[in-house]
Design brief:
The complex is a heterodimer of chains A (220) and B (77). Chain A is α+β, with helices and mostly antiparallel strands and 220 residues long. Chain A has two domains: 39-44 and 57-66 and 132-219, PH-domain like; 72-127. In chain A, 31% of the residues lie in helices and 26% in strands. In chain A, the strands form three sheets. A five-stranded antiparallel sheet of chain A has the order 3-5-6-7-8. In chain A, strands 9-10-11 form a three-stranded antiparallel sheet. Chain A is elongated, with a radius of gyration of 26 Å. Chain B is an all-alpha fold. Chain B has one domain (18-76). Helix content of chain B is 82%, strand content 3%. In chain B, helix 2 packs antiparallel against helix 3 (52-76). The chains are: A alpha+beta (220), B mainly alpha (77). Chain A binds chain B through residues 32, 35-40, 48-52, 63, 101-103, 105-106, 109-110, 112-113, 116-117, 119-120, 123-124, 127, 130-131, 133, 144, 146, 149, 152, 154, and chain B through 13-14, 17-18, 21, 24-25, 28, 31-32, 34-35, 38-39, 41-42, 44-51, 54-55, 58-59, 62, 65-66, 69, 72-73, 76-77.
Chain lengths: 220, 77
């Protein structure tokens, strides 16, 4: 049977790399295949994460931040503050010179400072979300709390001390956007962990329960 | 002419505005320095959880703007 179409040789044409093969850059450093991005709130088996006191053979199973939808409040409030000066001409129509004691040239500085405060407000809220991380590894559960620059708390417990994992998803918004609070109960007088507003709480509970089950099977 | 009469011309709203603005801006710069320190401290606790370059760049941009505003106000106001 005659050939209808014969593909031309593909010399010099780049072939797509195998997805399962590790990506290696020019310097020979292996880049992560499943990296955590700037806005990632939930990642299973993430690559490239390192934390203090991480053991060499320790594998991170879950990476959890608060659901990104919880940031809507401060984004909206910041946006409102951002557009407020646009209504200033309207106010000045009724009050031509509201601050008569201020020299005219100082208005620029006050407006610039106002926008700087809004930008900082956004930044502080963002890093409060960004650095509020919970990790579940094959050996430990780690909870890093960080809020408003002044509060920083890092807590960890061994996975074999975890007794029960449960979640609460109360309210229509939480159900719609699939996020809720995950409670990790530890043995004895040790502190319990709460992953607040965690995305896919049911998934987190299942994965952690599997992990506890495996540990119990291995170590009785 | 006593001391109060000498300094009275300087103590006016424009002058006080400048001093007030500079003081507030200076505190703001200090606040941002604390933010820089905290960002570096948190990055040493956990790394690879996003894009640390953007996070650091953003805080340095804020710090640069705050310092620029302080210096400009010092000269112009």
């Amino acid at each position: 049977m005659p050939d209808i179409f014969i593909a031309e040789p593909t010399e010099g044409i780049a072939v797509a790399p195998n997805e399962s093969a590790p990506l290696v850059d020019d310097e020979g450093i292996q880049s992560p295949q499943n990296p955590v991005h700037l806005f990632s709130a939930f990642k299973k088996d993430p690559d490239g994460i390192n934390f203090q006191d991480k053991e060499d053979d320790e594998k991170i199973i879950l990476f959890i931040r608060r659901s990104f939808i919880t940031n809507v409040k401060w984004i909206f409030f910041g946006s409102l503050l951002l557009v407020t000066p646009l209504f200033l001409p309207l106010i000045l129509r009724f009050f031509p010179n509201p601050l008569p004691f201020l020299p005219n040239k100082s208005y620029f500085f006050f407006v610039a400072f106002y926008y700087l405060i809004i930008a900082t407000y956004w930044y502080i809220n963002f890093i409060s979300w960004y650095f509020n991380i919970s990790l579940v590894t094959d050996k430990r559960v780690i909870d890093i709390d960080f809020s408003n620059l002044v509060y920083k708390d890092v807590a960890a417990t061994k996975i074999n001390l975890v007794q029960d994992v449960s979640f609460a998803q109360i309210g229509a918004i939480r159900t719609f956007f699939d996020y809720g609070d995950v409670l990790v109960q530890t043995a004895g007088t040790l502190d319990n962990f709460t992953f607040e507003s965690a995305p896919q709480p049911e998934n987190i509970v299942h994965i952690t329960e599997d992990l506890i089950g495996k540990r119990n099977e291995l170590f009785g | 002419m006593n001391f109060l009469d000498k300094i009275l011309p300087f103590i006016q709203f424009g002058f006080l505005t400048k001093i007030g603005f500079l003081a507030v801006d200076l505190f703001f710069v200090l606040f941002l320095v604390v933010a820089v320190r905290q960002v570096y401290a948190m990055n040493s606790i956990i790394s690879g959880s996003g894009n640390p370059f953007i996070i650091k760049l953003a805080v340095f941009v804020l710090l640069f703007v705050a310092v620029s505003l302080f210096l400009t106000a010092l000269v112009i106001l």
